[in-house]
Amino acid sequence: MSKTVVITGTSSGIGLGLARAFLARGYNVVGNARSEERLWESKQALGNPANYIGVAGDIARPETAEQLFNAAIETFGAVDVLVNNAGFFLPKPFTDYTPAELDNLLETNLKGVVYASQVAARHMIGRQQGHIVNITAAVALQANQAVPAALPVLIKGGLNQMTRALALELAPHNIQVNAVAPGIIETPMHAPEIHGFLAGLQPSGRIGRIEDIAEAVLYLAGADFTTGVILPVDGGMSTGKW
């Protein structure tokens, strides 16, 4: 029987790549985006697979998480994996962040993870099995002067610690909780003309690919004896000063 994964933020970039990778592994995929239009576009980009469904809504609202899991369970029977991917990265000088930007970061990057993980944990405790994988950020493991991002680091760093704490809490229920911490990844968020500069921020000398993240997430989604791990996929950026 095919396993089912819920992925938040599948309309583009890493989320869309994760959906494609899980589909290639034979998973049923339940995706999320803010609008029906973006969900339709992402499904077409994936080749309109029969084992992909989408649920529109703001993941920062608890009812969206409930709707995601209800749809997954009604369609596919159960949820085996949650990937908390929805979020955005906003690097800028600390003194330039506005109250609205702080609110937006907290809504999507923090509340979205909490609400989806709460629904996932309740469901998975009932089944006594499951995997939760959070997408955080390598810069939250090792700050970089060239990437001023104190507020995203505050939130993503907190999610790294939540990952460890939740891993311990859910371990008795055979639920594994881990995180992937990407470095700079080639997505539509980064204009091609700055790729050279961005590549120079990582010891490997290149920008990461979405496939690099997908491979790490797929590993953690099936790793039954790995929990509480923050896995950097960043070309060595978080290793230290270089």
TrEMBL record:
InterPro entries: NAD(P)-bd_dom_sf, SDR_fam. The keyword Protein transport does not apply. It is an enzyme of class 1 (oxidoreductase). It comes from the Bacteria. GO terms for molecular function: oxidoreductase activity. Keywords: Oxidoreductase. Its EC number is 1.-.-.-. Belongs to the short-chain dehydrogenases/reductases (SDR) family. This is SDR family oxidoreductase. It comes from Pseudomonas ulcerans.
